[in-house]
# Entry
Amino acid sequence: MGASAGSNWHLPFHASPPTDAGRGESDHLVRSMTAVLARQGPQSTAEALRVLRRGYPDTPLAIRIAAMCAGAVQSPK
# Structure
């Protein structure tokens, strides 16, 4: 995910949390979530988590965090 212009949210770590969902399913969810974060442009990690919690309430926290990590890795520092 490329961060939107002016977006400066990032995670203070670069860990990839484990997920229990099927690999293909979790990969699709992570891609969807990173796209949402790119569109929303959250200004903080807490705001990014709030966006994902609202949009994907039944998705395990580990997958939401994986999406945030994937977005942080791809966004410029």
Observations:
- Residues 23-40 form the longest helix (18 residues).
- Residues 23-74 form one domain.
- DSSP finds three helices and no strands in the chain.
